[in-house]
């Protein structure tokens, strides 16, 4: 369809004022408006599938900022399409979840309008190949997020929001420096053009550009030891926002490393030995994050913080996968892992939110025996947490398997990767351990909470949508792997 | 090949139970009767599908149905393997599965959460059949993990009991350690050969470098041993006994624990060329056989007997597999034959004691005794169990253990033979002890107040099916040899020779001490716990200290994690950003204090006063200069006027002109000064 990507970018921008104006009477209307726009958005996005499958990439270009010689280029290939699609699915589920989850809160039309605005940034990051637009969307995510965490969060929510904002903004400064340097070296802001032009640039500068980009993105990805903002932000945000934070925002960091650091800059420095050290560093920090996240999740007692640490652990898997560049299995596995993790962890956060809302408790030691009182939540928590633990037939297993596969392939050429892959495989045992502990403390044994009401309809629906997604992704990952691999091989 | 039922059976046989399991909650909407019927019908249909494939093996139509494209990039296809080994396991699983489902109808009738129970039972049957029908390593591994998940869910079935929940977690986590080893071996194979389908891997495994192949072999072996509850990670099986007895029967007696045996039998083709691997298999099996049997002899727990017995008997199977250098050899057949007979007698062993556990409310055999009059049928079934388990002719295990013994004798490895023979002796001893403790003698005080009655008919009937199997199975050896395509001749007459006599004498030697200690009570068991033997008692009491050591490791780890969380995460990581922020805040604050208050704040005032002073000084300077100039001017003008006065004597026009000129001059002067 003509201009479907532009529509996909602009529709959410329109949804914000629309929700604000139409939602004056009831917050439900505002929610429905944003929901409708998001569904339409997803539809427009999916209309590009035939082009992507046949041509590998679908591009739109618009006149913009002639002074910098840079048009507004929007594009999708298999990677960005699958990322953007899962993002929208998660947004749809989150908004649906919010309808009942947020019902007793105030100023909801502002909330939904902010959700609409947030969508612009979240989707835009995956859809553009222009570094300036990319940076714009990258930063644009922060503002609605800040207000949603602060305004509708728990406990000291503004403190957590402030921490989040400062951290990621500091990371973005490094990214901006990198973008500026790329523009000065090439005179072009398009990722794909820049990749070709950078080959002629001096390598000792490129190393610094690579480092700046990667560092900036790693902050967003919450790689240990840059993860300090994550547990607070995830734990204090309202559940739908936590789902988006964990499902999309931190994954945008991984996507950006793949697209910008590794995709644009790295090919030009791949020939010098120090580039290997960079990949080693990614690999090592991946392992550290995977273990650190799992370990802290095992010792934590706050339900949302457990899930938050689990996200750190999983970003370790993603970073490890990225370090396998350019092994195809590793790259496909990493992107697939981002998609799978978005669905699983989003679902797990929604479940945690449902549990917290129904019980009004957040310490898992005070819960227990909820399986008989919240059966649907128990089932969907089992689905999401087994996926997080990498049990087969649930989403994350297949992507972890592909990442490990890539790791052993890389081990064939460089023994270092045998060690790190083996460590990553060991980390899955700890994933299973914290997941089982969470499930045990929350759902099993005898009940410590007397009265728990049934989970409202809209929350149940969104949980079912994501559970089914997780299972489908786990059982039949073929189509999406095909989509991703087309992009990886090109 | 006809495109009939048997063409689709290899697919349907595992998909049907899985899909049906998803429908169990739906069926439960129509009432519990409808759900039960649905479950039993699924079990029957699965068994029919399984048996429909047997003829295909005999007729030699060994053709696997086409595979389905599944994971594109890495070229892994979803396929089924149509070969004797998988069909053998499939039939066994479908059969025991159906028996246990029927048994559950009565045994579980009054429990809550039956929809969940049947869901996981059907899902388990489907996954287990999927495991053995899979035609590549990845598909096998997926089902391998799924049966583990079912095991967790079913062990924790009574999720309100803390012991059951903890046991479930232990089972899942311990088997997961073996699973990652298996996963690693699969990945090594893929990284080297870029294929995962059994057939292609076995064809090309010879091209793998020997060290790599050996590593793969041991990783696989460790995964298999853990799943089959062999040393050193065998302790999970006893914990799994927290499950309902029907679950213990199906998962932890008859089928799931055999996954390791299946895996070793399946990969024999690949690794049997490595002597170290083959030896390790045999040794691991033989040692576990004896150590497990000794634990069964010591345990006071009535469910512990079949649990440790399972560990020990699987050791027999694995030891036999370890003697087979090809899948046609005697050891391979002996192991699998024993696997089948074990499924029957151990399944029966669990089903028979199910009602005892159910009614007595305890699992401690020391509180039991004299049940033979109250439960005659159960008593009879238990006699069959011990005869069949120990290997008394004509029960099944007489034949299977005979084959295992001769396969080991053919290797001539004396320590291995001794291990296996002593394990066989202890097997008879613990079975006998169990029978005496439970059924013989007088009723103890504990049982006086409990009214014990015979198990419901449905339970006895389903146990009876397995009992019948124990009796006839031994005579089915010959068709089984043809089925599995082994290369030796199965001759019933050969079982009645000197070897068998030796075997029976061994059993007798095992039985004698039990007879004197427990039946005649001429030797007190306390004597055995004193003196030199107390060390052995302690060792057995603690299960060779495996569990205490694992527990200590787990405890240490937990403590480490807690301190990591406490110190690194909550103290350092949580506060580091605030420390930095504090530093910045203090700096800015200090900067404001010092610079702003002391310096910057004063600058405007300072500048103002200084410039005022400057202005005043400057102005004053100009002022005085101007004054002097005006004075000078005035004096000059006065002097001049006197001269003019003298000259003109007061002509007005000249005065005016002089004044105007003077004014203009002044003005110019003033303009110049500014």
Keywords:
heterodimer; A: 490 residues; mainly alpha; two-stranded antiparallel ribbon; 20 helices; 2 strands; 2% strand; B: 674 residues; 4 domains; 27 helices; 1% strand; elongated
Give structural notes.
The complex is a heterodimer of chains A (490) and B (674). A two-stranded antiparallel ribbon of chain A has the order 1-2. In chain A, α2 (27-46) runs parallel beside α5, α8 packs across α11 and α17 (395-413) runs parallel beside α19. Chain A contains 20 helices and 2 strands. In chain A, 77% of the residues lie in helices and 2% in strands. Chain A is an all-alpha fold. Chain A has helices at residues 4-22, 27-46, 49-55, 78-101, 108-127, 131-140, 142-152, 157-186, 191-198, 203-221, 229-236, 239-269, 274-299, 303-322, 328-359, 375-388, 395-413, 416-443, 457-475, 478-489, and strands spanning 57-62, 72-77. Chain B folds into 4 domains: 1-265, no CATH class; 272-541, no CATH class; 544-600; 616-674, no CATH class. Chain B contains 27 helices and 2 strands. Chain B has helices spanning 5-28, 32-51, 54-58, 84-107, 114-133, 137-155, 162-193, 198-204, 210-227, 236-239, 245-254, 259-271, 275-298, 304-321, 330-360, 376-390, 396-411, 414-439, 445-448, 457-472, 477-484, 498-519, 525-528, 534-541, 546-600, 602-648, 652-673; strands at 68-71, 76-78. Chain B has a two-stranded antiparallel ribbon. The longest helix of chain B is centred in the C-terminal third of the chain and has 55 residues, at 546-600. Chain B is elongated, with a radius of gyration of 46 Å. The N and C termini of chain B lie far apart (120 Å). Chains A and B meet through α8, α13, α15, α17 and α18 of A and β1, α6, α7 and α25 of B.
